[in-house]
Specification:
The chain is mainly β. The chain has three helices and 20 strands. The protein has two domains: about 100 residues, Jelly Rolls (Sandwich); about 130 residues, Jelly Rolls, CATH 2.60.120.10. The chain has a six-stranded antiparallel sheet. A six-stranded antiparallel sheet has the order 10-11-12-19-14-17, with no helix packed on it.
Length: about 260
């Protein structure tokens, strides 16, 4: 194709190696962390940046707005994500990210294999956090059900848990049909992941930006310390939240629960 004299000739552009650029960082691949389905990555968006199209073939995806704000373009739709918002993207859906603010933004991406395409769904934390039917109040902590079992998806389920200071998960629980990732978004605490109390060997300090994998049949209590602790939990497998399936979990009446 040859430009004629009436066409506008555009200037070239230099991308410096030292420049801030939009990046995707793989945080966890399933096999690496003992998981069968779940994977997790992180998009870092400098101010004014925009991406090309991304997609996760044969997988459904859940984007979670961790830091700042961003716009996601998917198909003919655009979604403005605010703090702790989530966006469910169906099987293989292509999307692009844009940061129109003067601050850095960070978007988390959780994916799992899927066979069926479900509708796009924007889940606003500002809305969910005011709906009592989507909040579970436990001793010293609150659970916010974001991508709930009532929303269509193949394997994914997700929400947030907010711990008050000096609290722990109780009762301990594990799952025969779910695996999880906990991503710590605020504060500092500790976490255990173990098959049985007699073999407990995984005890780790956690702080903002850390994530922990929870393979099937592992107990996974969390402990907050002198400050509030917040984390995102993402499940792949059977689609239920433990407290809705086993009321004893909400009431703290069992020494241990297996679902």
């Amino acid at each position: 194709m040859r430009l004629n004299s009436t066409d506008q000739v555009k200037r070239g552009w230099v991308g410096r190696s030292s420049a801030d650029t939009l990046t995707y960082r793989q945080r966890l691949a399933g096999a690496q962390a003992g998981l069968q389905w779940l994977e997790c990555g992180e998009f870092a968006l400098p101010p004014g940046s925009c991406s090309h199209n991304f997609a996760f073939p044969q997988r459904e995806c859940l984007l979670a707005m961790w830091k700042g704000n961003a716009v996601v373009a998917a198909g003919e739709n655009e979604f403005s994500l605010e703090h702790y918002d989530m966006l469910y993207l169906p099987l293989g859906c292509a999307f692009a990210l844009r940061n129109e603010t003067p601050e850095w933004a960070t978007v988390l991406a959780f994916t799992a294999p899927a066979s069926n395409a479900h509708p796009l769904l924007h889940i606003r934390f500002r809305e969910i956090s005011t709906r009592e039917e989507r909040i579970r109040h436990l001793k010293g902590k609150d659970v916010f059900l974001m991508l709930n079992a009532t929303e269509p998806a193949d394997k994914l389920l997700a929400g947030y848990t907010f711990f008050q200071p000096w609290q722990r998960s109780w009762p301990p629980h594990n799952h025969t049909d779910q695996e999880e990732i906990y991503f710590f978004t605020r504060g500092r605490g500790a976490m255990e992941v173990y098959e049985a109390p007699e073999t407990l060997s995984f005890v780790v300090e956690v702080r903002e930006g850390d994530l922990v994998s929870i393979p099937v049949l592992n107990y996974h209590p969390v402990f907050s310390q002198q400050e509030p602790l917040e984390f995102l939990w993402c499940i792949a497998g059977a689609r239920y939240w433990v407290g809705d399936k086993v009321p004893a979990f909400l009431q703290g009446e069992s020494p241990a629960i297996t679902t």
